[in-house]
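Tutorial, part two.
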Amino acid sequence: MSDKNHSGSSAAAVERSQAEAKKPFEKVLVANRGAIATRIFRTLRKRGIASVAVYAEADRHSLHVDQADESYSLGFGRAESTYLDQDKIIRIAVESGAQAIHPGYGFLSENPRFVQRCESAGLIFIGPTVEQMQVFGLKHSAREVAEKSRVPLVPGTGLLADTAELTQAAERIGYPLILKSTAGGGGIGMQVVRNRDALEQAFASIRRLSANNFANDGVFLERYIEHARHIEVQVVGDGQGRVLALGERDCSSQRRHQKVIEETPAPNFPESIRRSMLDTAERLMQAVNYRNAGTVEFIYDADNREFYFLEVNTRLQVEHGVTEMVWGVDLVELMLEVAGGNARALDSYATRQPDGHAIQVRLYAEDPNKGFQPSAGLLTEVTWPETSASVRIDHWIEAGLEVSPYFDPMLAKLIVKAATRDSALTNLAEALADTTIHGIETNLFYVRDVLKNSAFVSGEMTTRMLESLSYQPNSIDVLVSGTQTSIQDYPGRTGYWDVGVPPSGPFDSLSFRLANRLAGNAEGAPGLEITLHGPTLRFNRKALVALTGAPIAAELDGTAVNPGQPFTVNAGQILSIGKVQGNGARSYLAIQGGINCPKYLGSHATFTLGQFGGHGGRALRAGDVLRLSDRKPAIAAQAPAHLPLPEMQDLWELRVICGPHGAPDFFTHDDIEQFFATAWEVHYNSSRTGIRLIGPKPQWARTDGGEAGMHPSNIHDNAYAIGSIDFTGDMPVILGPDGPSLGGFVCPATVIQADLWKLGQLKAGAKVRFVPVDHGTALELLKNQQSQIAGGEAEEVPVTAISGRDCIVAKLREKENAVEVVYRAAGDCNILVEYGPQVLDLRLRFRVHGLMQWLDARKIPGISQLTPGIRSLQVQYDPLLL
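Running the prediction step on this input gives:
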């Protein structure tokens, strides 16, 4: 990596050559994925060791693939056909020239058969021996070794043969008891039994589960410790009888036996117990001449101040990072040295002492509000706090990656270190506040709540602490998605029209802005656009909401709600939004504070064709979770109790400005008369991209489009304005907020800004009539609409259809200007500047570019967008400013 890419100074070269001489291997394959793979690669790079990654196709774009020197696909499918396929992994290791395999954790890390196969293939397995894995891999044999080594054991049994033996042992040990599968792990295959009535049923259940999951139905019994802490000791052995214990870790913060937060040193832990536990761990592992890294796990009875052996993990643990930060050790590097045969690998750590306190949080792709079910999908935003000597993040994700449902849901480990536990807790809370993961559900907000738990803050957590944690997410569950429900904001994604990115935003911006006003939000706060049939939403916290737009059936827990006025939804209530009633096509739901989703190019708006913005760049689906903003809007107190909503119509009148293309250049005068006289019908194939209209065909003022195409509607590409009526052939299409920025078709008229909202309410079969108005009338209508949204009274603006329909604002003659320039109106907020004749001429394109640069350099207030075409430049401006 870095050593591979540059040579550096002579001193650096000497340092590198020394590192090369000391490194135990030339190339190592990492038989794992995710955060542990990227973590191991970090050490391999530091040591100048080449790295080989393997990946399932679902992980093709994972960071661990990008960071490796070489990477090889394991094919498609789940773990059994990829990361657990020993044949594939060993073949890749041999063919790539790797000398060793590091298994990380999980998958094949504790599989003795895999170790045997590595050794048979001449590969060094970076971990313990086959025999050590076998001894500690089954809990009952691990207990036997522990008993011989004088390690304290929880009162229990060996493997139970039948229910008679089970009943006798239970009576001898006493209730409550815990039944355990000897081959289980990670909390699987364990069940607490509190009385004799449940004993036999639990025994049968655990045996069946163990046989199905682990191909081993062995079950044993232990006394269940009510107030237990899970404490584990990090050990490293040289395989010759020498073992070092590098401190203990408290892993008591668990849910369903899965660790959530780990820390070292264990808080509120008696020093005498700590010392005894470390000595005990060393003694146990010395008894088997343990090789490489491992963890001895204990249960600590907080009531009796006694500890008992639990199990040994013969691998690197997920939580090894907290030990590394406090003890100043790189455990992966130490594993490499031991595996490479360095007899003095442990020497420098024998007298090392811990420094400070470290805490780790595991971030999972799971939904704590739905029983911690795994969450998969596209990551739309990933941000981390700044890393340093006291903040470390082991992760494998970035925005744009797809989290697969096939593998372990861990996304990252966030670790902080400080001088004291209190300081570490403060720093961890700040680091989590600076972490964002959008697109899928994670346990990020859940662990933030755990950090506030009184038992955790005081360092008195037990393994059952999280059972009583009340978690209420600030979110909405999408139970039914509706026809097309999407997140939008106002005014949408502006400023990118020149590179082809449409603004998107609400199709009916008037109703959207009114909904936000009713909810006490700023008019642009992200809300929901609902098309024809709405979603069913379960609110996980209390919220003030407002529903506007087309009349739509809506019920809150079965009771009808009224649009046009705010109402409260309590936590746990379900808002069911049904079909649009009568005229109109879209309704809008605003939630006080807005929806919390990432901005993309400056906007929350969903652009489904581009697959970005909103929730995952798409319309909502059942199962989605919408996060709500934690911040209260500053204007909430000004929210009105009721607002009159725009009226939905049978025959929609759309006021337009004529142009940019009209008669006699493109259309005949009769065409234009017919265009305004017709009641056009909305075509069924209409969408946010454009509203197609059914009506008479024009006669056209020309026979073809010349150089631009065979049909008379064809012209060289020019910029469109939202609301342009674009003749694509003989059919007019009103361009919507997701429409194209450029095109090669003529537009006889453009809907004025004050009437653009109406486009969002046009549905199949509706009738539309166009009414031409002058620029002054359009401006007055816009001012009146702005006043209405701001809370003023709507005033009647007299509208008179104009008779003059010239779309050309001005011209510069070729004689005085070297080329003819035509200035065309494109609605009430755009001017289309055209150069020269309707031909493709590169010199005209240069003139367009020159004008664009000239205007852009002057930053004229009121000019908001410059969009070039082939021989034209569209200048978008704010008519209220300019």
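The chain is about 25% helix and 30% strand. In part three we will examine how such features are distributed along the chain.
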